[in-house]
Design a protein that fits this description.
By secondary structure, this protein is mainly α. Helix content is about 80%, strand content about 0%. The two termini are about 30 Å apart.
Length: about 180
């Protein structure tokens, strides 16, 4: 299970790096994110839905499975909302991101707490979930410029990538650590 989670987290870090690298090329000066920017905005929650589906298939714990199923549904809904709302404007897209970040962050925080006993390195995931929850509240009723919105989303993605990277490293180190063998007397 730990190897699957670690590999999923490494993939999420790689995706975030590529996503941010592409998002910085979007020019919002003409009043919209355009087709490319909209596609990127749609891709972000869609990727979370895919990651939740992968995690859900591998997770043995019923409580975590229920949370991951909820996150899958939330992320899929957010993907559709962003697809519908982004062409209308950044405020609408940011509101969809806000709701998704709040719910997904709450779920990530909860999953981290539930996994603490069985999987190493959950503190970064707990912190990341809390950060997502906080970021979502700052995205609500977005009134700043499109450029500021895109910059906020870049920071959000980079923050998540850092915490996923820290957790992946932690899991890798934990897997290589030699555990003492208990000797029966």
């Amino acid at each position: 299970m730990t190897t699957i989670i670690r590999n999923l987290y490494v993939t999420r870090v790689a995706f975030a790096i590529v996503w941010v690298s592409l998002l910085v090329t979007v020019d919002p000066s003409h009043g919209s994110t355009g087709v490319f920017g909209t596609a990127l905005l749609i891709a972000y929650p869609a990727t979370d839905a895919i990651a939740s589906a992968i995690d859900l298939r591998r997770e043995p714990t019923r409580a975590v499975r229920a949370l991951q199923a909820t996150n899958l549904l939330t992320s899929a809904t957010a993907t559709l909302l962003v697809a519908v709302l982004a062409p209308q404007g950044i405020t609408e897209a940011m509101n969809a991101f806000a709701g998704w970040a709040i719910v997904a962050g709450s779920i990530q925080l909860s999953v981290g707490l539930l996994r603490m006993r069985k999987v190493d390195g959950q503190w970064p995931m707990i912190i990341s979930g809390a950060g997502s929850l906080f970021a979502g509240t700052t995205f609500l009723d977005w009134t700043a410029s499109q450029a500021a919105a895109l910059h906020a989303l870049e920071q959000y993605s980079i923050g998540g990538a850092i915490w996923y990277g820290v957790t992946a490293c932690w899991l890798t180190l934990a897997a290589t650590r030699v555990r003492p063998v208990e000797i029966e007397q």
